[in-house]
Amino acid sequence: MKDVKCECGHVNPHGTVLCEACGKVLDERENKDQLLDMRYEGSARRSQTYNKTIVDKIWNFFSSVKVGVWLIIITLLASILGTILPQKMYINLPPDVYYEQEYGWFGKLYYQLGLHDLYGSWWYLLLISMIGISLVICSLDRVVPLYKALKAQRVTRNEGFLKRQRLFGTNHVIDDQDFDIVKKHLKEKHYHVREENGDLLAEKGRFSRWGPYVNHVGLIIFLFGGMLRFFPGMYVNENLWVKEGETTAVPETGETFYLQNNQFILQHYDKNKDKAFEKAIEQAGEVVKNYQSNVVLYKRVGESLPGEKPKLEKVTDYKVRVNHPLTFDGYSVFQSSFRSELKAMTFMLTNKNTNQTFGEMKINFEDPKEKYDLGNGYSVKILNYFPDFEFDKNGDPSTKSRVPNNPAFIFQMISPENPDGEKSFVAIKQTIEPFGDNTYKMAFKGIETKNVSGFIVRKDSTLWVIILGGILFMIGVIQGAYWNHRRIWVQNKNGQIWIAAHTNKNWYGLKREIEKVIEDTKLNMPDDQLQSEQADKGGV
Amino acid sequence: MATISSNLLFIAFILYLVATLFYGGSIKSKKELNEKKETNKWGKIAVVLTIVGFIAQLGYFITRWIAAGHAPVSNMFEFTTFFGMALVGAFIVIYFIYRTTLLGLFTMPVAILVIAYASMFPKDITPLIPALQSYWLHIHVTTAAIGEAILAISFAAGLIYLVKAIDQTKLNKRNFWLEVVMFALVAVLGFVAVSTVFSAAGYHEKFNWTDKHGTVAVVEYTMPAISGPHAGELLTKDGFKPLIEMPAFINAKKLNTVIWSLMAGILLYGLIRLILRKRIAAALQPLVKNIKLDFVDEISYRSVLIGFPVFTLGALIFAMIWAQMAWSRFWGWDPKEVWALITWLFYAAFLHLRLSKGWHGEKSAWLAVLGFVIIMFNLVAVNLVIAGLHSYAGS
Ligand code: HEM
Questions:
Q1: Which residue ranges does UniProt annotate as crossing the membrane (chain A) (predicted)?
Q2: Residue-wise pLDDT tens digits, B226-284
Q3: Atom 10 in ligand 1: which residue has the minimum CA distance?
Q4: Looking at beta carbons, which residues of chain B come within 8 Å of A79?
Q5: Which of A252, A494, B4, B173 qualifies as a FRET site for A338, CA 20 to 30 Å off?
Q6: How far away, in angstroms, is A462 Cα from ligand 1 center?
Q7: What share of chain A in percent tops pLDDT 70?
Q8: Is B329 at the interface with chain A, CB within 8 A?
């Protein structure tokens, strides 16, 4: 394909609509319209020029703003679907049960369509990636030609170009000094003024034209950052439970860091102390003020052999609270939840008939003993211990886990009368005496609990990419939205002074500015040809 | 302090009301409403009243902040009031760019409605749960509200455009939908009216009801129950017996409020129609006859341009920073987050559509209206209906 030479002498790339240098209309299709379409300066965009090969077609598809807008709208509508019912990460039952149970046939359908995990679905990700591709292609399609066209523009413009600007006007009589006054005013308004053959081009805010491209690059980087998460090692997200008093290795740190939980603290607002909230607290009942774990962070020193206790060196003390994570070495430890766990249970050996007691025993769940000697010939043996008791499929007692959620015991109670012992099965709120009536029972006395802090351990190496993308995006939108690209041409044509002006947005501001610029001169305010073209339709 | 604060809010409210009357006056007595023309005396008074009102409301905000010890944007009342204040603030800024008092006539009533709506929620100063104790949260919420308020100005300008551009001589699709928008505004007034009436009367009735898990609980209505709860059993003597009973998965109490508000809205709307003897939009038309269409079109577009970056910063970026601190993830697809994203995508689409020729003028004005509907949906429905982490309704 050949380049196009304009009558002004400038050689334009094939496909150019308006000559880059003088603005003459090169593409006849344009001629019909009264006003010029100034988007992208009428430069030669690949997408408008080629449409033969598959690559051309794909390129043209993704570089079209229409397609881009459709992608955005479809994503928007899809996102709405995901907010109708809670997504799977916010439910606490298996999804196949939850949706039908809570929302009936609708919930079932929602689940079957996969809408319960919409934002993680392949087609939602596909939509987002298509937006990403579109962003890359549409930006490339426009930014280079636009840059070239803006760089190649000359001061003196083709008559047709000036006449067909939205703001245009001619003047027959002017004073000699008017030109200088205008120039002075333009400079005061921070215009960059260029002069050639007695013609004038005043321009400002050209950099705002790059705003959209900067913000699209920011978005692309942001999306790329989101993708990085799928690479191993970039993103760690683990739950960590640490009991009070215990020290545990922080997961995914290669057993380098250890966290000791000294105390978990739960505070509520006190309506007597926090007077300002008195009424609200009365309304709401209890309101939590603080979740806090006082922790110590340790680092392992030297190598330790398997099975050996690692040597630890204290790194820091910290109070982990909501909104105040502990951060070290790229990791952050967040306070996320807590639970209470049984620590110990106390029983008293009691004679069922006389209610006389024969000493008490405390079973520590972390270290239950086999036999508790109560003196005077009384003792209790633990024959079996089920920390998380349930009856298994065969109806035999068994345990679900090793966490003492629902402890149960089989005791053998030895007394001077029964040196062989009586057996008793004791679980919370139930006692079974497998061999008939016992003389003694284990009377429940009390429990001790301890808190377990739930942490989230997070390492996110993608964060920097995301932050960079976000910052670039903001710079880009602000650049494009709060500044605009204004050009004012003041030129000698056929012994008249022509004024034409263009801005990519905010015509009102441009008009106000031109009024100021031509103050104290005989120049007339150029007409807004768009307004006169369509006049004021409709209305009263 | 808390009393000073609520008095200041009341003063601001009254000033806004009076200012609106003056905006109306400024238009009646004025021939040319466009560009460069100076504001007349009525208009100047209106603007001064608006600014004084804004300062009073700022006073409310600061004193309440002092009383609570945290920025008052942490429950429905506080947040919505702040949104109303931001709306007035955004109008003042845009006014000084474009100097048209007509915009005030359309913006101030919206702001007044927003503040009136806000004051239907419990006004107690609430303590902050740990997740909300963060500067980032307050920065996020205030910036987001300011962004939304600026975007809402484009709605007001869009309304002016539609009122002027749409032919009212006979009923068609366009003026029907415009009237629906007007009715929606009246319905908000309806909500405010019924809530005020029943709360002034101190109306209460209690029910035992059964939820979808079969648990029996007590629910207290503050308006007579038209829609009763599932398996509801009236506990209050002489209480109003529900006309219809709702299935368990519907929140009958909220639905009841909606029904009452709509009834009041219809009643009010009917009254207005009776007095005006034409559609509301048609009655407003003479007020806008002097403004140029592409001037309001530009105001509307410009507000989106100014508001979009602020909204992005507040509702997405600051929100992500806060979420990262509080929940350890900057994005969690919770409904409120998703709706902020939807709003953002919508305005992104708006800006791109403006790049192509056919989307200036009326279509653009409709988009501005739709954008405001999305913002309101996010503010009202997502908070009250689709509960999420951010939901203020429960606390
Ligand atoms: C969610 C995704 C997107 C966002 C947030 C976004 C944002 C923006 C913004 C803020 C502008 C400036 C508009 C103005 O100043 O009036 C812009 C311009 C633009 N965008 Fe996007 N955009 C997105 C996706 C896309 C896509 C997918 C395309 C591809 C077709 C696209 C093509 C363009 C074009 C061609 C411009 C005008 C450039 C110019 O005036 O030189 N955008 N975009």
A1: 67-85, 122-144, 213-231, 463-483
A2: 888 887 788 877 778 888 888 777 778 888 888 999 999 999 999 999 999 999 999 99
A3: A477
A4: 338, 341-342, 345
A5: A252
A6: 25
A7: 96
A8: yes
Q: Which residue, judged by its Cα, is nearest atom 39 of ligand 1?
A: A212
Express each pLDDT in A84-109 by its tens digit: 888 888 888 888 888 888 888 888 99
The pair of three-digit structure tokens given for residue B328, joined into one six-digit string: 């350890």
Domains along the sequence of chain A with CATH: 4-150 (no CATH), 155-205+484-539 (3.30.310), 235-340+454-459 (no CATH), 344-444 (no CATH)
Q: Is A480 in the pocket of ligand 1 (CB under 6 A)?
A: yes
Each as own residue / partner, the long-range contacts of residues A77-81 (CB below 8 Å, 24 or more positions apart, any chain) are A78/A118, A78/A123, A78/A124, A78/A127, A79/A118, A79/A119, A79/B338, A79/B341, A79/B342, A79/B345, A80/B338, A80/B342, A81/A115, A81/A118
pTM (2 decimals)? 0.89
Buried b (16+ CB within 10 A) or exposed e, A182-210: bbebbeebebebeeeeebbbbbbbbebbb
Residue in B with minimal Cα distance to A238: B328
> Can you give the pLDDT at residue A329?
87
Q: Name, in order, each residue with C-beta under 8 angstroms of B29's C-beta and a sequence gap of 6 or more.
A: B40, B42
ipTM confidence score? 0.91
pLDDT tens digits for range B186-230: 999 999 999 999 988 888 888 888 877 778 888 888 888 888 888
What is the Cα–Cα distance from B71 to B74, expressed in whole angstroms?
Answer: 8
CB of B98 less than 8 A from some CB of A: yes
Interface of B with A in 13-52 (CB under 8 A): 35-36
Q: How far is the CA of B178 from the centre of ligand 1 (A)?
A: 29
